[in-house]
Amino acid sequence: MNLLVLLQAVEPTVEIAGQAAQNVPEESYLSLVMKGGWILLPIFLLSLVAIYVIINKWLVISRLGRKDSVWLSRVVELVHDGKIEKALKFCVERPYASAKIIAAGLKEYDKEESEIQEAMEIEARQQVSVLENQMNWLGITASIAPMLGFLGTIFGVIKIFYDIALANDIAIDTISTGLYQKMICSGAGLLVGIVAYTGYYLLNGRIDKVVISVDKESNEVLKAIRASKRNNGL
Question: Is 25 exposed, middle or buried (0-12, 13-18, 19+ CB in 10 A)?
Answer without folding.
Answer: exposed
